[in-house]
Design goal:
By secondary structure, the protein is mostly beta strands. The protein has a single domain, classed as Jelly Rolls (Sandwich), CATH 2.60.120. The protein is built from no helices and 14 strands. Strands 5, 6, 7, 8, 9, 10, 11, 12, 13 and 14 form a ten-stranded antiparallel beta sheet that branches. Strand 12 and strand 13 form a beta hairpin.
């Protein structure tokens, strides 16, 4: 590795490798790609395996299409995807805003338990033909003493439509979560890319 120190501009640069200060790597936190899931055909759901190495993880969902339905939901597994929890222990609160054909509107997603559907909520769109694109932060999934919580920002739209929803959701049972299943409230997922990152 070549290290260059420019005294005139106070710059330090390395052509390869990493810079260390007193034996520790220089710089702040890092974001590491854990997995990429490509949806290229119609499927009922997609399972994402979480990493045991990160207490904070992030899903980036890009242009996810559904055949019907306007809500993207999730369930969690604590046994490596053998089963997914369908109990009333999911809670969601959030806000939904949209502009459709020039008409602005807003509404509330949910305040309280989503027990009727037995699932958590990632977000919603105004039309099933819009694309889901989202950033979903996953907190405490690897902690057995606190609930797993998700915070999601969802955007979608096509011609004359733009949607935005902001959700906080929780699976309120204290357990280590190994997998998350994503699915539409109705119909199938038809295309899209889902990337999972670990944050440290």
């Amino acid at each position: 590795m070549a290290l260059t120190i420019n005294h005139q501009t106070n710059d330090i640069s390395a052509t390869s490798g990493s810079v260390t200060l007193d034996g520790a790597a220089a710089g702040g936190g890092a974001m590491t790609l854990i997995s990429t899931t490509n949806i290229t055909s119609s499927v009922a759901s997609v399972d994402i395996s979480l990493s045991s190495s990160y207490s904070v993880q992030m899903m980036v969902i890009h242009n996810l299409d559904v055949t019907t339905g306007t809500r993207l939901r999730y369930r969690v597994s604590d046994d490596n995807g053998t089963s997914f929890e369908s109990t009333s222990s999911y809670w969601t609160i959030g806000e939904y805003r949209y502009v459709y054909s020039g008409q602005a509107g807003s509404g509330t997603l949910n305040n309280g338990a989503f027990a009727a559907n037995d699932t958590g909520l990632i977000g919603r769109l105004i039309n099933s033909f819009d694309d889901f694109s989202a950033r979903v932060m996953i907190y405490n999934s690897q902690e057995s003493s606190v609930p797993t919580t998700l915070q999601s920002d969802v955007a979608g739209g096509r011609s004359f439509t733009v949607n935005y929803s902001d959700c906080a959701s929780s699976y309120s049972v204290n357990s280590v979560i190994t997998d998350i299943r994503l699915f539409s409230e109705s119909g199938n997922l038809t295309k899209g890319v889902i990337k999972l990152y670990g944050l440290s």
